[in-house]
Amino acid sequence: MSKIKVEEINKIDLDAKTWWQPQIDKQTFKRLLKRDNSKAWFHTILYFSALILSGIIACLAWGTWFAVPALFIYGTIYACSNARWHEYGHRSVFKDRKLNDFFYYISSFLAFFEPISWRWSHANHHSKTRHQDLDLEIADPRPTNLGVLFFAEFFGYYRLKAELTKIIKHSFRIFQKSDQDDTKIFIFDLVPEKEIDKMVISSRIFLLIIIFTISLSFYLNSFLPLLLIVTPQIYGGPFLWLLAFTQHAGLKFDSFDHRETTRTVILGPILGTFLYSNMQYHIEHHACPQVPFYNLPEFHSLIKDQLPQSNKGLFDAYREIIPAIIKQSKDPNYEIVRQFPV
């Protein structure tokens, strides 16, 4: 990447005064920023207990038709490790940085994200949200390819393929340099030099676990190890996709107002709090990413009069998203316009 391109990227800063920020009492906001270990442990134990229990049930049901619904439940819970990867990655769950990092690495493997490169990619996503050619986590690029979006990405095919390819290359210290195309940035461009060795080591650990799982399946002459590790991101991924795609789909590009680029959807305690770690409050999260996820409902209630009207459930969200995405497949300039208080 040329020096000029790096300078262009750095012009956009999360802390820049041009970004919209909600108006809220400072003392109240400081309280919302406080991490609570009791809540952190409750949600952590609840999630991993559900994951382990559903995995045991799937193993016990293996060889019967009950394995199908059992694996669906297990795969859905497993795939929603994505939400845990996200929260621990922000280090906003536990008070202790080491605890956040410990569960971040575990959740990274479950979610199939190499932890070092994705920490920097996600930081970049927050500081350049939906700025084209800068944000690497845009899920609905334009012009929209409906087949790719609603089928291949629905099952996470391209993401998992790209991540596996990256992990293999990085394990052998093969890095894709962006000087092949100076107009495009790659995840590797975002990783500081001092973090590269960590990225290589974590990639090798992930690759060894995958190789061990495949070998174990051959040794046991059973698909079960493969169905319990990594592949749940495929067969359990569609439900996660339905939750996660609502975050920014169909909304404006290149805006410094998260209310224009990001969507909040009101979900219940099972879909929203348990499976999705309250990431349905996505405008609130992008506006203030250090607010712990268990404080986001209260944060939402305090600033909702400053936000566009929230979508009430997934059906309401997709009633808005699907027509917009179809229009964008024909007209890349079309976007959903949100109405909010000035």
* Rounded average pLDDT: 91
If helices are DSSP runs of H or I spanning 4 or more residues, what is the number of helices? 19
Strand order in space, largest sheet = 1-2
What's the gyration radius in Å? 20 Å
Can you tell me the residue ranges where pLDDT is under 50 for at least 5 consecutive residues?
1-12
Roughly how many Å apart are the termini? Answer: 39 Å
User: Which structural class should the secondary elements be placed in?
Assistant: mainly alpha
3D shape: globular
- Percentage of residues in strands: under 5%
N to C succession of SSEs = HHHHHHHHHHHHHHHEHHHEH
What's the main sheet like?
Answer: 2 strands, parallel
**Total domain units:** 1
How many E strands?
Answer: 2
Roughly what percent helix?
Answer: 55-70%
List keywords for this structure.
single chain, 342 residues, mainly alpha, two-stranded parallel ribbon, 2 strands, globular
What does this protein look like?
This protein has a two-stranded parallel ribbon. It has one domain (3-330). Residues 1-12 have low confidence and may be disordered. It contains 19 helices and two strands. Helix content is 59%, strand content 1%. It starts with a helix and ends in a 12-residue tail after the last helix. By secondary structure, the protein is an all-alpha fold.
